[in-house]
Amino acid sequence: MSMFFSEFFVFFLASLLTLILTYFKVSTNTLQQIIAFLLAVLLIFSSRVVFSRSPKIQGLKAHYILLFLTASFVQLLVISTGGFYSPFLIVLHLYTLGSSFLLNSRSSLSFLVLSVALLVMNILLNSQMLALFQDDPGTVLLYFVSFVVVIPLAQFLMYTYHIKDTISKILKEYIQIGEKREESILQGLSEIVVVTDKNLTVISVNESAEKSLGVNAAGIIGKSLLAAVPLKDEAKNPIKAEALSADKVIADKTTRIIQGLLFQFKSDTQPRRVIVQARPITDSDGEVNQIVFIINDALISDSWQRHSDLEQSRAKFRSLAENLTKSLLGSKLNDKALWAELLVNIEEDLLTAQEIEDHLIKKIISFQDVAFMAKEIVSSKQQLASGLGIYLNFVLPKEEIAENALLSLAESDFPKEALPVSGFTIPTDKKWLEEVLKKAVDLFLLLASEKSGTKVQLAVIKQGDKAIIISLSCPYPPLDPRQQTELFTQYYGSLQTTTNLKLGSGLEGFIIKSVTSQLNIPLTVKVADSPPCLVLELSLAKVAPNTLDTTHEVVSQ
Fold it and tell me: For residues 369 and 425, is the Cβ–Cβ distance under 8 A?
């Protein structure tokens, strides 16, 4: 609305200027000189500034200056050459239609109304024009009707133009979002993805391909696929292009899966058995113009058979699911919520263990408030703790007044982006640190559940400016060194039969140890004497941002 009033005011000033020159009967020669001057200024000014609205102040000034100059030029041109009888009268129509595209219908119509009023005033102030009007009023009325016709035409054109412009912008944004999404998905895949043309010349590769091959994209693109990605048969001999079934993919337009191939990743010392999927990409005519090759060391359909070491957890998952179903059908058990929680934990642990065994674990670094993270995890585990009859608490030293206040703000409706930087903020991988903390809490809750009413405590302690210690403790009988080691093995060895760790998936400790060792997070377990309790500690370094390597990648063995 404010933009419309501003544009109306500019048109009013231009009309007022023309009216003043008409009122004082400025000669035609002088008017023509003024018009020539305005034209010269317009040519110079418009060569540097594009006629459009801009959110910047400088752009708005240029916008209004151009409006004033063009409106004054058009009105003076028509008035100086005869007003309603001017051969340039159509310029007013064209200017109205043009401004409806660049501005809006209200602004363009305000210019038209002011111009018609100016033409009427010109007749009243000029005796010669008044005499012509009195002799032939029909001509003027006919011209007036032409202005009326312009109004719906301007509105229609403006409406059509802006609809097409809006649709164009939406489609452009949709395409850009789609391209970014596809690029993000492609780059985020741990599998090697190589796109080639029909002749198997590499067009593009994803980040995993660059790292697995040990070269950047520029060193791969333009090469033959088999020259860039040296695949071998089971006898370790280089394969030929025919082995990739590219001709069949192009002819049938179907995906082919090629097995029995070997590929040596940069991180490996020996070639690894891989599966290659060749997928066709068609153009608008339905013809195959590109082929996507996906190289993976694991078949999704065979994932269960490859993880025979996880069969014990899968059997427990099925058993719990059957028991839960029976309890929901009429049993008087009161621990249905606990059973459901344990069931969910086992399923999550299975998926996490498969991910650790199957894929490269990428260390994606971001700055995280570990105190807030720990508090959220404690809150999310309260249902499990309650079902096991355990009190689970989050503890922050009392002297950390600022952090306690910050945690309260973070849990309120206070804008997260306006929160100050926490003293407990460190560079870490958010996903995997959260996974370690969740599994550590699960582990200690299961250990402590043999005695109802036991307290498990998760504490976050700042160790100067060097590190932050996350400490998890529970009053549990001392474990000897062998048993402490068994905490981080699959199914816990002898502890599975002597403790309530048998209620879990058996993978909690394995996940903790795998992730912390691969991400270089120091992990210690000790037995405190007073009071007697088991303590697990994670030491997280507070590394300066400028020394942080966010491209580090940890290879899962």
Answer: yes
Tokens describing residue 121: 């005033």
Contact status, residue 203 vs residue 194, Cβ threshold 8 Å: no
Burial 384-409, CB ≥16 within 10 A → b, else e: bbebbebebebebeeebeebeebbee
DSSP 201-236: BEEEE-HHHHHHHTS-GGGTTTSBHHHHS--B-TTS
What pLDDT is stored for residue 331 in this prediction?
A: 39
For the cut 80, the answer to whether the pLDDT of residue 7 exceeds it is: yes
Q: Domain boundaries in the chain?
A: 2-166, 190-297, 306-541
One-letter amino acid for residue 462 of the chain: K
Tell me if 214 sits within 8 A of 220, measured CB to CB. no
| Radius of gyration, CA atoms only, the chain | 38
Positive/negative CA dihedral, 53, 58, 64, 69 = negative
Q: Does domain 306-541 have CATH number 3.40.50.2300?
A: no
The tens digit of pLDDT for each residue in 88-108 reads 888 888 888 777 767 777 788
Question: What was the pLDDT predicted at 315?
Answer: 66
Cβ atoms < 10 Å from Cβ of 213: 21
* 105-120 confidence digits (pLDDT tens): 778 888 888 888 888 8
Closest CA to 534 of 450, 418, 468: 450
Q: Is the pTM of this model over 0.70?
A: no
SS (H, E, C) 55-120: CCHHHHHHHHHHHHHHHHHHHHHHHHCCHHHCCCCHHHHHHHHHHHHHCCHHHHHHHHHHHHHHHH
Residue linked to tokens 């086992």: 346
Length of the chain: 557
The span from the CA of 209 to the CA of 216, in Å, is: 9
- Per-residue model confidence as pLDDT tens digits over 274-309: 888 888 888 877 788 889 888 886 443 344 444 555
Mean pLDDT value across the chain: 78
Burial 337-346 (b: 16+ CB within 10 A, else e): ebbbbbbebb
> Domain 190-297 belongs to what architecture?
2-Layer Sandwich (3.30)
